[in-house]
Recover the amino acids of this structure.
């Protein structure tokens, strides 16, 4: 337990705002996709997970003809999020911090969510902000 507390305090010392060309590119990709995802966050179809990812929470909120498109958006977003967490850990010269950085961002995304958006709770259930 002490080792995990020590690791968490180290991650808190990590520069989560660090910037490299790779991080800039990933953020730009995520920003351009965000406009397409907002309607699905708003409808409750897509939700934020505790581990810093997103998921199709309620496929019934998306017309059948659009589901594949939304699934592709979710997949692309999660690829970028994985890359972002990995690059931030690398840029801090601590690739072993990736999972803690992921958890920290998971909480950040939930904190920044708009009212009405869905997020995963500590108990793996869903709550609406």
């Amino acid at each position: 337990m002490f080792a995990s507390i020590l690791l968490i305090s180290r991650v808190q010392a990590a520069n989560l705002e660090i910037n490299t060309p790779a991080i800039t590119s990933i953020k730009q990709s995520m920003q351009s996709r965000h406009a397409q995802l907002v309607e699905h966050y708003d409808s409750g179809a897509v939700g934020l997970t505790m581990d810093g990812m997103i998921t199709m929470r309620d496929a019934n909120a998306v017309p059948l003809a659009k589901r594949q498109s939304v699934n592709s958006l979710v997949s692309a977003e999660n690829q970028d999020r994985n890359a972002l967490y990995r690059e931030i850990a690398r840029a801090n010269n601590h690739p072993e911090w990736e999972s803690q950085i992921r958890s920290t961002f998971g909480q950040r995304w939930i904190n920044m969510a708009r009212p009405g958006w869905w997020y995963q709770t500590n108990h793996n259930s869903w709550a609406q902000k």
About this structure: The CA atoms of residues 55 and 74 lie 6 Å apart.
